[in-house]
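Lecture notes, unit on protein representations.

Consider one protein chain, 171 amino acids long.
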Amino acid sequence: MKFYLTPIKRLYLSMSSFDDGRQIVEIINNDFLYRGEIKNNMFDGFGEIYTKDYEYFGEFKDGYMHGDGVCKFKSNNCTYDGNFYKSLKNGYGKVILFDRTIIEGIFCNDKLNKALVRYPNKEVLECIFINGLINGIARSIFPNGDIVEKEYKDSKIIRTLRKEKLSMNQY
């Protein structure tokens, strides 16, 4: 999503400009509240935005969420902490779900590719996502040392490939 400024009310927190033409502002309109830097009438630099759907704290470029940032999505109560490219999750990032499950991995154009999923019960799942679903061979590591490899197709288990138990002195 690219942000253009159509404010009902614009409050300047700082009247001074940076050498590159950026200014620090607070903007309030019907769709969002923004505090941060602008350049050429677009969000550019560090800022924070609050909308009815999400809250974002991080870097902007040319009106987009771009660079490192943290976005909290209100509808599903999850948080993404990572890199953005033109407002899409891109590069390394971490999603924290409402139940404290942590999914960290590589995103490309808002889609998760390779991931490490850490569940609240301490189980860890290494897997590959294709079109948002687990596909291929995934490995689960359990707190008791058990390792289970399974083959997935569209997040459905096709078959169990291997089970083994690690002894504590293998760590």
